[in-house]
Amino acid sequence: MSGKKILSGVGTALVTPFKKDGRHVDFDALEKIVAHSMENGADFLVAMGTTGESPTLDAEERRQTCRLVATCTAGKIPLVMGIGGNNTAAVIRNLEETDFSGYSAILSVAPFYNKPGQRGLYAHFKAVAENSPLPVIIYNIPSRCGANVEPETVVKLAKEVPNVAAVKEASGMVGKIGEILRPARRFCRIQRRRFAHVAIGGDGGRRRDQYGGQSDSQANEVSGRKRQERPPGGGAGRERTHHEPAQAAF
């Protein structure tokens, strides 16, 4: 664990807009979403997270999306790229083949469906971090993955693997945050359910809504805001699962 806080403040996980046919990414709309997020105080952006519904995009669409976000931001704010999966070797190949120009970190979800134990989760994230050119943020969301990265495993990774930089803790179990923070105070962390997490040591946050988010001040005041309707042309023809905003803190 390097102890360096690579991200801070409020970040927006970007949605992926589609054209009316539901088959093609609307890159013009995405450019407007990125601009809107920056104009409204986002401190960093997350491209190709689960909010961007990356499983429904092919490899070329993901590549074009990440490149456009980097081009639009032009180094003005930090960027995080979502890269993960349940095939460790495939994730590593993806890391080796991806252009990370303009990005500061990757967000890597716990292996889904396979339901690995804690030793398997440790081995997976260790391998990902050791092969990533950027710091790795562990994404723990057991309701989606079927496996929970326990606090002991997070702390072990934080202490033993220098390139593991943060955790996005989305289990909803606030007590686990304290279990991570107490032995790893210097560990850069992201947590769900903002206010309880701030109370026990978190700071800043992550937000997402339809157009890239409310203002920075609003994001710090509002938790769990309902999403607005999608803009015209979004989502038809692909499964667009919309979950509640994941308020999080560093």
Polypeptide structure, described:
The protein is of the alpha/beta class and 250 residues long. The chain is built from nine helices and nine strands. α4 (118-131) links the parallel β4 (105-109) and β5 (136-140). Mean pLDDT is 78; it is low at 188-200 and 208-250.
Enumerate the spans where pLDDT stays under 50 for 5 or more consecutive residues: 188-200, 208-250
Cα-atom Rg, whole angstroms? 17 Å
Q: Would you tell me the overall average pLDDT?
A: 78
Strand tally, please?
9
Instruction: Supply the number of helical segments.
Output: 9
Topology pattern, helix = H, strand = E: EHEHEHEHEHHEHEHEHE
Order of neighbouring strands in the sheet with most strands = 8-1-2-3-4-5-6-7-9
Principal-axis shape: globular
SS-based class: alpha/beta
Offer a concise description of the structure.
With 250 residues, the protein is α/β, with parallel strands linked by helices. It is built from nine helices and nine strands. Residues 188-200 and 208-250 have low confidence and may be disordered.
Layout of SSEs?
Blueprint: E1 10-13, H1 27-39, E2 44-47, H2 59-73, E3 79-82, H3 88-97, E4 105-109, H4 118-131, E5 136-140, H5 142-145, H6 151-160, E6 164-169, H7 174-181, E7 190-192, H8 194-199, E8 205-207, H9 216-221, E9 248-249
Parallel strand pairs: 1-2, 1-8, 2-3, 3-4, 4-5, 5-6, 6-7
Antiparallel strand pairs: 7-9
Helix pairs in contact: 1-2, 3-4, 4-6, 6-7
